[in-house]
Amino acid sequence: EAEVAQSPRYKITEKSQAVAFWCDPISGHATLYWYRQILGQGPELLVQFQDESVVDDSQLPKDRFSAERLKGVDSTLKIQPAELGDSAMYLCASSSDRDRETYEQYFGPGTRLTVT
Amino acid sequence: SQKIEQNSEALNIQEGKTATLTCNYTNYSPAYLQWYRQDPGRGPVFLLLIRENEKEKRKERLKVTFDTTLKQSLFHITASQPADSATYLCALVRGYQKVTFGIGTKLQVIP
């Protein structure tokens, strides 16, 4: 069964360093999401792509976060510089435009970021 | 402001009983409401979607209701099992696949 891939699974970095996360959505899924989830909270949308275009990045802290999906397939989320408050799980999800029954999002395993 | 509320306290129930989880929202007009399951250290997994014009949706031991007047959805797991122990997230879907998640309710089914 097709899955959303994310790497790395775990990342420890010092504050003020740069960090990047990678996501490969399910083949054919046009919509890609990046979420941040703090322990005990629900996923918070950072950015949503439709193909290579950004649909929603209203909650993305643009002074330090950037995201791209250059060819409309895989995506990279970058933080520079990292701050202690960025410690969280970063989840990537994808969905198909053709799924009008459930609008199901398929999530990857996430990247657990710890900033020291 | 827009808000989604789920029981922030964990819900403990005895095996075999029906678990009922609540999702309330304010200042939203969602087209659909979804429920996801999340196990520790893993991404959420989709369970069910219910549309604004549907009162109830069932899937195996799961039942979801959606009351747009009360702005509330109830999620039921009948004949609960220890394997149902997880965090359950409700999510509101508006516009073009714009999804907003609640904080989730942790369910513990006690053998």
Q: What can you see in these coordinates?
A:
The complex is a heterodimer of chains A (116) and B (111). Chain A has 116 residues and is mainly beta. Chain A has no helices and eleven strands. Chain A has strands spanning 5-7, 10-13, 19-24, 31-37, 44-50, 53-56, 65-68, 75-79, 88-95, 106-107, 111-115. The model of chain A has no long low-confidence stretch (mean pLDDT 94). Chain B is mainly beta. Chain B has strands at 3-6, 11-14, 19-26, 32-38, 45-51, 56-59, 62-67, 72-77, 86-94, 98-101, 105-110. In chain B, the strands form two sheets. In chain B, strands 2, 4, 5, 9, 10 and 11 form a six-stranded mixed sheet that branches. Chain B has a five-stranded antiparallel sheet with strand order 1-3-8-7-6, with no helix packed on it. The radius of gyration of chain B is 13 Å and the shape is globular. Chain B starts with a strand and ends with a strand. The mean pLDDT of chain B is 92.
